Amino acid sequence: MSVYFSEEQNLLREQIRRFIDEEVKPHGEKWEEVGMVPRDVLRKMGELGFLGIRYDEKYGGANMGTLGTVILGEELGRSSFGGFAATVSVHTDMASPHLVNFGNPEQLDHYMPDIVAGKKITAIAVTEPDAGSDVAGIRTTAVQDGDHYIINGSKMFITNGVHADVYFVGAKTDLNVKGSRGVTMFIVEKGTPGFKPSRSLKKFGWRCSDTAELSFDNVRIHKDNILGELNKGFYSIMRNFQNERIIIASMAMGEAQAAIDMTIQYVNERKAFGQPLWDKQGIRQRLSMLQSKVEAGRQLTYYSAWLDEQGQDSIKEVSMAKAFCGELVNEVMYTCQQFHGGFGYIQESSIERMVRDARIDSIGGGATEVMLEEVAKRMV
Questions:
Q1: Mean pLDDT of the region 330-336
Q2: Do 245 and 224 have their domain in common?
């Protein structure tokens, strides 16, 4: 194990890995077919403390730092089911942190115990058809009406969007200022009149993750449901990008390692021209180089998380990790599928699913091109 982790954290990793081996891998294919992760599985994770690794003990959390996020991300990635990893990581590290970072005491006390326990699953609703990484460009509006706000608009590509219980929604509350200054975050619960998932989205990968387009039609929300400060929601969104990108990088390295392990086993068993594929020098060396790159990506991710945990500015390092790992996992998947031959193209093979699932790692949470621009800004 890495020098970055304590004995307690190493035990956490073992517990998560055991849970995934016993409760996820045997059932993941069924979840792919139905398009969601059963909520009783998430509640079990909550009972075991896996959904509150970063959160305060008073809500049932473990109060660990950013390296705890990396442990969870890697083990989710190792599951080989990207949709499962997405379902969990969005709840733990992309949506609920908005509440933790900016919620008032009443909001925290009301929602956090159930969020950590897995009784309420969360989603973050910021992305729109014309606004992804360009958060300032969102068009969903929230117009004040006395003590309430009326929300109108739509959101796109929302993970957990079909079956979530609590949504953290970004909307424009001031149309007369620069976009980034007029965004506010709201807490919107499932079943609120006028709010609904307008359609479930079918995806190339992450098929056991429920993903939706959301519709807001005169959704009336009390001002008490404002999350953080009025017109300061943009800064809430920006603040959590670091955490989001760290967990995606760690998930990508978990996925890559699982693919390499799976492929080593396959090429040792599969024979061609009278000998195992592993006996081919070219195959051994290509996998060895990929393993070297994965180890480099893993250590970069660990270091980035460690910097963040120390309270240091780590935007450059996190952006590097996200860009490098997001691209690397796709390189790994391409080669591992190639070495599986025709079987790697059949849907009953795990590597076929993993190839599809990995493609999003260089897109979601900030595309590689966006990440490289963040790095470039800090090179001069």
A1: 98
A2: no
